[in-house]
Design a protein that fits this description.
Layout (H helix, E strand, L loop, with lengths): L4 H27 L4 H22 L5 H19 L7 H7 L10 H15 L6 H11 L5 H8 L3 H18 L9 H22 L10 H16 L6 H14 L2 H4 L19 H14 L7 H14 L8 H14 L3 H15 L1 H9 L12 H12 L3 H12 L5 H19 L1
Helix pairs in contact: 1-2, 1-3, 1-5, 2-3, 6-8, 6-9, 7-8, 9-10, 9-11, 10-11, 11-13, 11-14, 13-14, 14-15, 15-16, 16-17, 17-18, 18-19, 19-20
Length: 422
Amino acid sequence: MRNDTDKFAGVVDHLFRHQSGRMIATLTRIFGPRRLDLAEEVVQDALVKALELWPFEGVPDNPSAWLVQVAKNRALDAIRRETSLSVKLPELARAFPDQNLPQQNIGEFADDQLAMMFLCCHPTLAHETRLALTLKTVAGFSVREIARAFLAQETTIAQRLVRGKRQIREERIAFEMPGGEGVRTRVDSVLEVLYLLFNEGYSAQEGESLLRADLCEEAIRLARMVAAHPATDVPKSHALLALLLLQASRLPARVNAEGDLFLMRDQDRSLWDRRLIAEGLMHLDRSAQGGDLTVYHLQAGIAAEHSVAQSYAGTNWEDITDLYDRLCAMDPNPVIALNRAIALSRWKGPEAGIGAIASIESHPALSRYHFLPATLGELWSELGDKKRAAQYYRSALAYVCTQPERRLLLTRLASCETDNTG
C-alpha cells in the first residue's frame, strides 16, 4: 500500500476524465437537464471518495467500474432525497448495473455523450457558455483548465457555467439529438469544443508536461463518435477528425522519456504512428465529399503534407505555404500568420520568414506569446546573427511556457552564447 497522495490523485484524475463525461451524460438523461447540477454532484462525489480511499486501500482491480458504482450509489441517495425521482430507479438500474459494464452499454453511453454535447451547444446559449459547458460536463475539464484554454479568469468561467445551467433549467432545453437544421446549427460548436480539447492535450499551456495524451485520446474518441453518427456524418466532422488523427500520429516523437521537446525537424519519423496517419488520410478523403471547405480541411491538409513527407527538408513547403495563405484568408488569425511565416521561411529562406513576421510582430495577441520571439531567434540564428538570436531567445524565456519548451529555449540560447564567445 502506497500513501503517495499526489500519485493517486493523478490516477484518479486520468480515470475520472475518461469516465465523468459518460456518467454525467447518462445521469442527465435519467434525471433530466434541469438537474444537471445533481448529475455533476454525484459524479464529483465518486471522485472525492476515490481520493479519500485509494491512497490507503489501493486502486481497485477495476477502477472504472468502482467509480461507476459509487456514482450510482450517490444517485440512489439523491433519488431517495427527492421522491419525485423515484420513477427513475428502473432506468438507473439499467444504465448502471452492479456488475462491470457490459459491452452492449457502450453504444448507449456514446449516444448519451453525443446528446450531452448538443445540449451544451444549444443555439440559445452564448457561444462562450456552450464551449465552457461542454468542456466541463462532457470532457471533464476543471474550471481552471477551461480558463486557461480561453485565456480568461476562473471567476469568469465559473459565472458562465452558472448562467448556462440556469438557462437550461429555465428554458427547459431538452436532452436529445436534434434533427435536421438543429444539428447543423450546433455541430460547429461541438467541433470547436473537440478542437480545443485536443489542443489542450497536444500542447499544454504551462507546467512540467508539454503533452497530455489522455486529453488527445478523449478528443479523438469523441470526434470519431461525431463523425460516425448519421446526424453528424458531414464533411467538416471528418475534416476535424483527420486533423486530430494526423496531429496525434506525431505524439510519440515530440517528447522523449525525459520530457525533452523535439521540434518536427528533429523528430524520429519512424516513431510516427502510421496507423493513425492512414486513418487520418482516409477521413481527409471523406471530408472532400461535398462542397464544404473549412479551416479544419485546410489544417488537415497541412498536417497531411507533413505526414507523407519523407523528411523535414523534403517537405512540400510551397504547397504548405499556399494552404496557409488560404487559411489566413478564411481565418485572419495572427498565430496562423506566424505559422505561415515559418512555412515561407522553409520554402524561400529565413529572410522571407522574418519579413513576413514583421507585419504581425506588434499584434496585441502575440505580445506575450513565447513562440514569436523563439521563432525569430531560430531564423536569426540560421542567418548567422547569434547575438540577435540570443536576444530573442531571452525574450521568449521571459514569457510563460512549459518546462520542456523552456529547456529547449535555454539550450538554444546557450548555443548562441557559445558561438558568440568562440
